[in-house]
Amino acid sequence: MLFALFLTISFSDVRAQEKLDELLPIRGFAIAAPKPSGLNDFIKFIEEELGPKKVNTLILRVDYNYQFKSHPELRDSAALSRSDVRKLVNAAKKFNIRIIPQINLLGHQSWAGKLENLLKVYPEFDETPSVKMPADYKWPNPDGLYCKSYCPLHPGVHKVVFALVDEITEAFETNAFHAGMDEVFYIGDDKCPRCGGRDKAELFAGEVRKIRDHLALSGKELWIWGDRLIDGKTTGIGMWAASLNNTHKAIDMIPKDVIICDWQYGRPNQTAVYFALKGFRVVSCPWDKPNVALVQIDDMIRSRQYATKEVKPNFYGVAHTVWSGPVPFFNGYYGRTPVTAAASDGTRPVDPNETPWNTFKVMYDKIGKLELKP
User: Fold this and answer.
1) What is the total count of domains within the chain?
2) Residue 144: which region, alpha, beta or left (left: phi > 0; alpha: psi -120 to 50)?
3) What are 47-99's pLDDT values in tens digits?
4) What does the DSSP 8-state code read for residue 166?
5) CB atoms near residue 213 (< 10 Å)
6) Where in this chain does the record put each Glycoside hydrolase family 20 catalytic domain (predicted)?
7) Exposure of 49 in the CB half-sphere (CA atoms within 13 A)
8) Which residue range is the domain that position 192 belongs to?
9) Phi and psi dihedrals of 210, rounded to 5?
10) Domain for residue 98, yes or no?
11) 215 found inside a domain
């Protein structure tokens, strides 16, 4: 009798998992990788939250938070060791969670008034060396400086970044890599001796293809953010979650096996449909607005339900995104710090319910209930 009950429960669990996989193949979470001092707390979060909530994809922004052997000069001062990474990988494997490490390529080579490690160590890779980092950063500014980019045509840049990519994907025992590539405002700069005058869409597409082709040599997938592939003017989405510098034309120049992470935060724009009809697998990515996240989940499930058999696989799932390190997120998630009138990124006043941690809870509460529906 007990054995029969065990078989019934096990079969029920399998069917529930199969149903969830059918509704949302990708159920993701994206956040910065922990520092070594926060490793145990992060592993606890995997075991107590991500695993039980049926998250199956963990996008970790590693950047230079790893003790690279190929280029130790690019390591952060406090960085994860190979042993630390193995602990993360083992914790994730218990729950069949695939980790996809991210290093920001092309754009996001600086933040505010601070250069990130690549351009700090290799200033010759800078797309806009004439733009100096300000002591007191403000936006907007006369230089149009949001984040620096590396020059995609510099003859030495890929030897360096691909060594990092190969090392980090091996360390995380993964078959996928996230290259970032969002919010690229500096590309094809007129003063660049290599890129000046070139078509920005062709430059962007060329960099995507170069990274994708390198990964394909070892059977790995490329994931990127999708904003640069959307026409910000025609859609009315604007310059942040879409492009106003003509990179959007690159969508017709890149391989269809690139996975698109479609972040649309302020409203549930129907951009996932655009990517899917263009032939790409697309993951809808909310951030800090629970109502937007709920609509995006419904949209993804509905799209998979009504799409043709050719397009259905392109509606790949959803992934919650967090734009801080784990510590601020955990502090909010576990109620360690009071929610103030400021947004989670500190830039604007918002409803106190509109936080990344509340959005994550609401989003995965809904996903958890999907298993229970007949």
Assistant:
1) 1
2) left
3) 999 999 999 999 999 999 999 999 999 999 999 999 999 999 999 999 999 99
4) H
5) 11
6) 75-288
7) 17
8) 25-370
9) -60, -45
10) yes
11) yes
Structure tokens at 94: 């218990």
- Quote the tokens at residue 20: 């969830």
Digit-coded pLDDT (tens) for 187-205: 999 999 999 999 999 999 9
Tell me whether residue 9 is in a domain.
no
DSSP summary character for residue 341:
S
Q: Which of 282, 60, 26 is nearest to 169 (CA)?
A: 60
**Peptide bond before 140: cis, by omega within 30 degrees of 0?**
yes
> How many other C-beta atoms can be found within 10 angstroms of the C-beta atom of residue 27?
25
What's the burial of 166, exposed, middle or buried (CB within 10 Å: 0-12/13-18/19+)? middle
Exposed e or buried b for every residue in 251-283, given b needs 16+ CB within 10 A?
beebeeebbbbbbbbeebbebbbbbbeeebbbb
Residue indicated by tokens 């990708």: 26
CATH of the domain at 257: 3.20.20.80
Amino acid in position 278: K
pLDDT confidence band for 1 (50 / 70 / 90): low
In order of 116, 310, 331, 343, 350, the CA distances from 346 in angstroms are 21, 43, 15, 5, 10
The whole-angstrom distance between residue 116's C-alpha and the CA centroid of its chain comes to 18
pLDDT at residue 374 greater than cutoff 60: no
